[in-house]
Amino acid sequence: MCATIDDGVAKTASGETFVFRPARSLTEGKAVTVGIRPEHFQRSGEGSGPTGTISIIEPTGGQTFLTMEVAGKPTVMTVSGDDMVPMGSTLTLFVLPQQVYVFDAETGHRISEN
User: Would you report the helix, strand and coil content of the chain in percent, each value rounded to 5?
Assistant: First the structure.
């Protein structure tokens, strides 16, 4: 997801914010790319997270892949295969700061601690 550094967090143009652990000092307004692994999204947590509507459900047995739009991009998360999530339902996602990967949009270098 495309974002910029705003007050120490990665913020998308549509307003989603992602707290992360920076590896070095941050430059306000710096263009960054945010990456989160599908298994790191959680359906509950503290603070605010992006909200979206489920558009694709892919059950694979032990886990189910859910696709929803976050910051204007299709975003995939995984849930337990036993977790019944209806198509079209709206979810708010949470992710721990240490599981948010942030990269300099210009150079591709990682700027998050992980």
Answer: 5, 45, 50
Residue 98's SS3 state is: helix
Q: Which domain holds residue 22?
A: 2-104
CATH code of residue 31: 2.40.50.140
Number of domains into which the chain is organized: 1
Rg (CA), the chain: 14
The alpha carbon of residue 23 and the mean position of all alpha carbons in its chain are separated, in whole angstroms, by 19
pTM metric for this prediction: 0.86
pLDDT digits (tens, 9 = 90+) for 19-38: 999 998 999 999 999 999 99
Q: Is residue 66 part of a domain?
A: yes
For residue 43, the model assigns a pLDDT of: 86
In the predicted structure, residue 4 carries a pLDDT above the cut 90: yes
Q: Please give the pLDDT value at position 48.
A: 65
Position 61 in a domain: yes
With contact defined as beta carbons under 8 Å apart, do 58 and 65 qualify? yes
In this structure, is residue 113 part of a structural domain? no
The answer to whether the beta carbons of residues 63 and 78 sit under 8 Å apart is yes
